[in-house]
Structure formats: structure tokens, C-alpha cells
Amino acid sequence: MNYSPNNGTILAGESDTITIGFNAQDVELGDYYAQLKISNNDPDNPLFEVPIHLKVADITVVAEANPTEICAGESSTLFVEATGQGETFSYLWKTAAGEVISETQEATVSPAETSIYLPFAVIDNDTIAGEPVTITVYALPQPNLGEDQSACGNTLISLDANADGASFEWSNGETTASIEASAEDFGFGIHEIWVKVISENGCENADTVMVTFGEIPAVNLGENQQICNNASINLDAGVDDASYLWSSGQTTADITVEGAELGVGTHEIWVEVTSALGCVNSDTLEITVNEVPPTVSLGENQALCGSEQYTLDAGVEGYTYNWSNGASTQAIVVDTAGYGYGIQTVWLS
Asked: What is the pLDDT of residues 318-330, one digit of tens each?
């Protein structure tokens, strides 16, 4: 028999552990008893004895873990069995730090890191230790796809697993560490994209990101327009379910443009359209506002006799003219030779 330590200092109120060993090799089966005498400087109890009982028995304690290697978050089952001398045993398991975790033959554990577990078989008042069992715990890969992202049209979005791994599996079937996501591959709309990373030890973990692909609004204000300053024209952005901003500050899908408000001249009108998914597009056209010609008066009705002539004048310069006889000059001469006798109507636009 041996013990350790064989001397030491303990402060008042504290405790210490003395480990006792016994070499049972070539010792006959049976019960052995001894007294460990400990001397100290306590004047009231300078010597006290600790009884020691050792049972030498033909007992085998076998323990195992299944599996012995796990990934973080998984579990393993501990099993211990003692045989010998036809005895009935009870069991317990301890951690390497001595904490009892189970008083059953089989125990399920989920260590966060590689750990050692100590098996014990108990018979009567005796506790028999088995060989320690080690469970190796492998860390999980930690993929990180980052924050949710969005893109418009054919813009690409780069996604990286940001983790070391032996293999990769993406929701679209790709097997590389990073991918280029596009609306062409996934379609327009909101998509949940995930990646699963598998380590060389077979441990796997995944991460997910939401990716939005938005269509660019097809804004079309049409061709450039011309209106008179007493007329108006309606302009429509041509896109539904969006928000709008016109050069005039209006925010409706369509607007009415008044020539009188714009004034004579050429004006640039634009609209910016933002879709529900945040994609922006715009279009511009020119509206030319022309002044309305002044009111034309050809005077009172006239009567001509024989070969008499009469000059009709539009009275305004700088315009194009269209007379009822097909003339395009500012003034025309009317007579019976050209119109014949009778009542004739002459008009000008």
C-alpha cells in the first residue's frame, strides 16, 4: 500500500485529498483491511486513524462510448459493464473533474469539447474504476453569408460561405466556396439562398441569406410632343404598383401637362419610377408649346358684279395658311372668273 502526499500543510477550516494506492498483483482474492494513521499538530487530536478496506476480486470493468467521435451539438452513449464473481453491480459515471453525471450503466452525453469520462462499478460499499473513456468533439464549420442583399436587373450578387470546409453545397446545386447569384439563375423576386459546409471530419453547418432580385421598371413616356398653349396633354409613366416622381414634383402615375402653364417654347419633362422592390428607372421627353394663332377675320360678306375683284387678307403674318380654294398665301383675290356667279363661301384656316 502507498499513499500521497505523505506530508503537507492545511489551513484551519480547509481540506486536502490523500490518494491511497494498493498493488493487488499476485495477491489472493479476498478482503484486506488497514489503518492509515495521520499525525498532526492539533493538540486535541494529535493522531487520528482512517480505516482502509480493499477487496481483491476477479472483476473486470469494461467501458465504451458510441460513437467516440462526434460533432459539436451531437450526443454519444456511454456504457459500462462489470463481470466477475457472479456479483450484482450498480454503476456511475464521473467527469475528469470528479463530477457525477450519471448513476446508471448507460448514459447519454453531449460534450461541447473533447472530454474524458470515468466509469465505475459499485458492489456493496466498494467502488471499482474502469478505464477512462475519451469522446473527441469536432467543431462545426461556421459559414456566414452576411446580411440580406438586393439587386436590380441583371446585377450579380456575390455570395461567399466564408468558412473552411472539405465540401460545399448551395441551394442552387453549386459546390464551390462562393457563387455569383443573378436574376437569370434565380428569377425576379425574393429568394432564400443557403449554403451547407461540410468539414473534413464530416461535421456540417449551414447559413441562409435572403436575396431580392427586382425588375427595372420599363418607363416609356413616348415620343416628343407638340401642343398649343391653350391645350393640354396627358403623360403616363406606364408602370403599375410603383412610386413616382415627376419633374414637376407630382407623385402620381400620370399627370396632365397644361400648355399655358409651361409657356411657349420647348420643355423637358421627366419621370423617375421606383418599383416595390426598390429598383429605379426614368424616362424623358420634350414638349414643344406653340402659340395659338390670333383670331382671323375676313370682314363682312361682299357682293361683286361682272368682272369686279376683291382681296381677302388673313391679317396676320408669320403663319401657314390654307384657303378653301387651295391657296396658301396670306391674301387671295376673289372674282367671278375664279368662283363663278352666285353665292360662294370662302374660308381660311
From this structure: 888 898 888 899 9
